[in-house]
Amino acid sequence: MTRLVMKFGGTSMADLERIRRAARIVAAEVGAGRRVAVVVSAMAGKTNELVAWTDGAGKPGQGVALCDDEYDAVVASGEQVTAGLLALTLRNMGLNARSWMGWQIPITTDDAHGRARIEDVSGERLGPALDGGEVAVVPGFQGVTRGGRITTLGRGGSDTSAVAVAAALECPCDIYTDVDGVYTTDPRIEARARRLERVSYEEMLEMASLGAKVLQTRSVELAMARRVPVRVLSSFIEPDENGNLPTHAGTLICDEEEIVEQRIVSGVTMSRDEARITLLGLSDRTEAPADVFTRLAEANVNVDMIVQGQARSEGAVNLTFTTGRRDAARAAELMRGAQDQLGFEELRVDEDVAKVSVVGVGMRSHAGVAQTMFRALADKGIKFQAISTSEIKISVLIDAAYAELAVRALHSAYGLDTV
Predict the structure, then answer these.
(1) Sheet with 230-234: strands ordered across
(2) 297 burial class (0-12, 13-18, 19+ CB within 10 angstroms)?
(3) Would you say 82 and 43 are in contact if contact means Cβ atoms under 8 Å apart?
(4) Quick one: pLDDT at residue 243?
(5) Are 305 and 272 in contact (CB under 8 A)?
(6) Do the beta carbons of residue 366 and residue 265 sit within 8 Å?
(7) CB neighbours of 340 closer than 8 A, spacing ≥ 6?
(8) DSSP letters of 299-344?
(9) Helix, strand, or coil here: 387?
(10) pTM of structure
(11) pLDDT of res. 248
(12) CB distance 86 to 22 below 8 Å
């Protein structure tokens, strides 16, 4: 019998009725002869509530260290509740199920509490349990340090947990969420968006990092590194009267070689979590940009787009870069604090911007992709402020007011409404 890891997100675990629906989906896979492990998120909104409780405990006093390990002990409990509830529901349906905490498997992580990274997942206990007919229900988002302390993986970490467990069990991973697959763009913006049957790891990684909310970026990185086939499916389906699930559903994330018909562009994404920071009149020293970005890197501020242009002042340049909105205030404060050392005249911060991107592996072998993008934007009167590219994507920074118009224009320009 084949093994399978299934993952249910927060909306799929939002209440007892949805947990029962998830249990019916799991039972259908077991009935089809699969050996199943299930990774679950906390109920929708529960993690935010738990974080608020830790905030309510107050700030550490003077000279007292942050209690990040206890923060993780509290916040990880949301997934433990849903794991127990789903295991209990499956048992009440007559299935052999039990919950496995991260430390029982174990899912070993580093000790970066609140944003830990998985170092190893052992299949030595979990694999034989599955092969013996047990449904293992695993709380996502959590692990354990080598010293035995509970850790959490950061927002969206349950996706990473699921892929890591699938890699350890050497099996595929089905991720059930509130959408029925990966679309050519957000259907809430463009009604003609189409579900893609297959997307390459590279494309999905770009889409996830550029604003698509379907999968967490680290989970795609891990799936690509370990070659774990991942399917994105809707958790709002029901088995038929014979206990069978719909076939050919969802979107498969796989190797590029497994996609028969290569599209030039597979999707259009948008991110409003952007801020543009400009240093006006920066000294035209050769090492000036290096000084700027070294300071940002040391403060763990991620920079995306970078544009340098000639300033009005002789011997000076204007340097523009983008970062996430949450990092913008910290980056601006860092730059202002080093203004004398860096040698710039003025700093400007603009959060009223958005990043719109087109992604597709077909860009590697087709010319004219950029021309189509810029012509479509020009036809709508949309100006771009910065550009970044890779082998399989082009991103532009534009005024936030035009973001949705840009998405619809590009979706049409590349013929994605007919995919």
Answers:
(1) 97-99, 135-139, 35-40, 3-8, 173-177, 230-234, 251-254, 198-200
(2) exposed
(3) yes
(4) 79
(5) no
(6) no
(7) none
(8) TT-----EEEEE-SSTTEEEEEEEE-HHHHHHHHHHHHHTHHHHT-
(9) strand
(10) 0.86
(11) 65
(12) yes
